[in-house]
Every structure is written in structure tokens, then in C-alpha cells.
Amino acid sequence: MDREKELWLESIGAKAFPEPIKYVYMFPGYSGAFNLSERYIDETPIGELQETYRRNGEFVALIKERGRHEMALWEKMESIVEKYAGLVEKRISNTENLSGEDLRDIYDGIHSLGYIVASLERLYRMEEEKAALTED
Questions:
Q1: Of 49, 57, 79, 95, which residue is most buried, by most CB within 10 angstroms?
Q2: Is the dihedral of CA 15, 31, 44, 5 positive or negative?
Q3: Where are the beta strands (DSSP E) in 31-92?
Q4: Could you give the CA distance from residue 45 to residue 28 in angstroms, rounded to a whole number?
Q5: CA distance 115 to 47
Q6: What is the pLDDT of residues 89-122, one digit of tens each?
Q7: What's the CA angle centered on 66, arms 134 and 9, to 5 degrees?
Q8: Chain-centre distance of CA 129, in angstroms?
Q9: pTM for this structure?
């Protein structure tokens, strides 16, 4: 391997392992790793190696941004559920002098809360399915 490629590998923090294991590099804040075989490094021009590294960095940035967005969505949904459940609970606790309309409001509140919980459950299952796909 030529010196320029060795220096590039050092600059990205790639770690060398004894054969047949490959070079591996990671990006901060991302749990995945990228592998480079010695043969691939030998046969690939430095410009192409650097371009692949740049594209992988963009990919990681996208994944991290999507994760932040999804986390914000989860936090917002959980906050809505907690607030709504509190309102429904308060309405149920105020059982003195309830009219038929009040009972209907409580029922509608519980029903809506069920939809919210079902939506959260579906989002959670989608996240699990996505995680399982990325592990393969």
C-alpha cells in the first residue's frame, strides 16, 4: 500500500487488524462502522476512497439528524399523551353532578386517548422493524 493511502487511513482513524480482518472506521456519535479490505484499498484510487468516506459521512449525518427528529416527535407525543391522560383523569375525578353530556365527553376522551396510545405503539413497532432491518 502506498504511503498516501496509509496517511489517509490514519487521518480518518481507521484501525488496522491482522489478516483476514479489514480496516474499520467510525464517525463520532454513530454506532455503526465502515470496513475497508486491504485489497479494496490497494485497488482503489485515493480519490475514490476519499469520496466514499465523504458520502458515508453524509449518510451518518442524515441518520443522526433523522434520529434527532424522531426523538423530538416521540417526546412531543409522550407529552401529549401525559397531558391528555391528566385531563381525562381530572374529568373522571370530578364525578359530582355529571350529566349525560359529561359522561359522553369522558368516553370521547378515553376513546381519543386510545387512538393516541395506538399511534405511539405503531411508531414503536415501526422503529423496531427499522432497527431489525438495519441489523441485517
A1: 49
A2: negative
A3: 34-36
A4: 25
A5: 52
A6: 777 777 666 677 777 777 777 777 777 777 777 8
A7: 65
A8: 12
A9: 0.46
